[in-house]
Write a structure and sequence with these properties.
The protein is an alpha/beta fold. The protein is 31% helix and 24% strand. Strands 8-11-12-7-13-14-15-16 form an 8-stranded mixed sheet. α4 packs parallel to α5, α5 packs antiparallel against α9 and α6 packs parallel to α7. The mean pLDDT is 95.
């Protein structure tokens, strides 16, 4: 007889709002495409807000606090989608309740918080998942396999230049907290952080680090209120280093957008070259194309990502920011049912925080 189908994983989302937000744009549509999950509860900034979201999205239970949600018996996996400064308290309450946690990136507001959360989860023996969705993207997974299979030969170097989107001359909608590095949501931690995780997944860990950061947009004006803000976050991040393979790496993120290119990543090897391009600098949510040339090829040609890298259950989400989140959920389901470790846990999240902290400290000392 066939094995019985596993019971769906009961999900509770912290931060699912009826008005807007990443949870409604990405997590909600992703979960509704996958049979292995059942969205059973949500919490928001207040009990009233949670009830509004519950009615709008037809979610059975709503809670005014994340702590109440974590204590609900029907919730197996707590998903944290709120702003970074609130992550630590919410995640700790979920871990204290003995629940699995899927936290959006950055995991914590700085290295110390990330390491604390990883230690707590390990001490309690709980499964955790960090939202570094770039590594779930079909294009990134295909790129990893191309390199591993020797498409470029030995990797000699890699260079990536991209735009952060935010952190430029234009004021981001509802983005005041992004302008203060004390909140942990910066160009370094978000687009640069996601891209570096994808880069190291494809090419290996970072060993040597050099870095420069700068704030070039010294004043940003809110077009609605006219208020002028003076950011204290870097809008220029330049990393140079050596990977564990010996390959030389250079990554430059610029705040705002460019009239030229907003994402260009090259991998150069002894027998070939790969070029990844896109119109947005956020590797975790954009659409990217891969061109390559190797052997006797005179010039790069388009390398279409094979269909085996896409999940048929997520077909309706292809081309949307929700796809990679859905791909991560599908990997989580396999991790829990097959004992794999496709989605990075909090220990990996803390290690990645450590790399970003190292880059920032080297830049400050330069």
């Amino acid at each position: 007889m066939p094995s019985p189908k596993p019971a769906p994983i009961g999900v509770g989302i912290v931060g699912l709002s009826a008005r807007r937000g990443w949870a409604s744009q990405a997590h909600l549509p992703a979960l509704r495409q996958l049979d292995g999950f059942d969205l059973r509860a949500l919490s928001a900034s207040s009990a009233a807000s949670a009830r509004q979201a519950s009615e709008k999205y037809a979610v059975a239970r709503s809670f005014g606090t994340a702590g109440e949600l974590a204590e609900a018996d029907e919730v197996d996996l707590v998903v944290v989608t709120v702003k970074v400064p609130d992550h630590r308290e919410i995640i700790q309450s979920a871990l204290a309740a003995g629940k699995m946690v899927f936290s959006e990136w950055p995991l914590g507001n700085g290295l110390a918080e990330a390491e604390e959360l990883a230690t707590t989860a390990a001490d309690r023996g709980l499964r955790t998942f960090t939202g570094l969705q770039a590594r779930s993207a079909p294009a990134v997974r295909y790129l990893r396999d191309l390199v591993a299979d020797g498409y470029v030969g030995e990797v000699l170097s890699t260079s990536l230049v991209a735009s952060g989107g935010g952190w430029g001359a234009a004021f981001p909608e509802n983005g005041t907290y992004l302008l203060d590095r004390a909140n942990g949501a910066t160009m370094l931690t978000i687009p640069f952080g996601h891209a570096m995780d994808g880069l190291t997944m494809v090419l290996g860990d970072v060993e040597k680090v050099t870095a420069v950061t700068a704030t070039r947009h010294r004043e940003v004006k809110d077009p609605q209120s006219g208020q002028v803000y003076r950011p204290n976050v870097a809008d220029q991040v330049v990393f140079g280093g050596v990977l564990s393979s010996g390959a030389v790496a250079c990554v430059h993120y610029r705040g705002g957008t460019s009239r030229g290119t907003n994402f260009h990543w090259e991998i150069n090897g002894t027998d070939g070259d790969l070029v990844v391009t896109g119109d947005i600098g956020h590797l975790q949510l954009g659409e990217f194309t891969i061109d390559g040339a190797h052997g006797s090829d005179a010039r790069p040609g388009r390398l279409t990502v094979p269909e085996r890298y896409f999940d048929p259950a997520l077909q309706e989400l292809r081309g949307t920011p929700a796809y990679n989140v859905g791909a991560a959920y599908a990997q989580i389901q396999r991790d829990l049912t097959q004992g794999s470790s496709e989605v990075p846990d909090f220990a990996h999240g803390a290690l990645h925080h450590r790399l970003l902290d190292r880059i920032e400290r080297v830049a400050q000392d330069a």
